[in-house]
Amino acid sequence: MADRDGYIPGVPCWVDSSQPDPKASLPFYSGLFGWEFKNLMPEGPGGDYFIAYIGGGDVAALGSLPEGAPPVAVWKTYIWVDSADEAAAKALKAGGGVVVEPFDVTTAGRTAVLTDPEGAAFNVWQAKDHKGAKVVNSNGSLNFNGLAIRDVEGAKAFYGAVFGWKTLEQPWGAFWTLPGYGDHLEERTPGLREQMGEMGAPGGFIDVVAALNPIAKDDHTTPAHWDVTFAADDVIATAAKVKELGGEVVKGPFDAPWTRLAIIKDPQGATFTAGQFVIENKDLTA
Q: SS3 sequence, 248-281?
């Protein structure tokens, strides 16, 4: 099932969750998505980092909270870059912040924790041995990343400067695009552009790398943030499992353009979305 071996700069490539007790969350994700785990950290006080696998391909990870971090579980998005140091410098120049300076993660790669001008945190990933998620867009694997933000125009300026992103706006949603990404995907999967056109995808959608989700003007509590969607073959069945596994269905399942979604909170409080592709919903409006 492992179908990816690296990404191009500007594409979300990996997700992991920092958890107060990552080991305690393993049964939840194993039961929900069928993940198998391997702890990459040696036994001791240094914390854990469990890589999750489907069919032998890595899909995500659950790790311990960084030292001094608040005890809040969260899913994090990593964006592929050629240089974590250059990406951090671009973020600062564009009005963002550097929460954690670039550092090496053994021989796996080099990363940094950055924020956009509104405070939404994300990681950049300069790959060495670890090439990001190998299994994507199938049941239990990474399907989409999205940015929830208030200052959309400010976000456009920032992410355009750091990653070269543009936007694609449709009546049913807005998206971040990376010019040329579709050419890369077409090279990997010949005929993909034609297939998407036959399904009714709008022109330029093949270049989409993430969703852009404006926070409602009357919502004064939700902070700007990045979120994660995992693919599900049957969202209704997935949501039904959540409670028995110790989690919570925050919202849904509900139908949306092209999809059926459920917003889920794991037993330690990390929130994510389960998403099912439903072509019959393509004409729905947001």
A: EEEEEEEEECCEEEEEEECCCCCEEEEEEECHHH
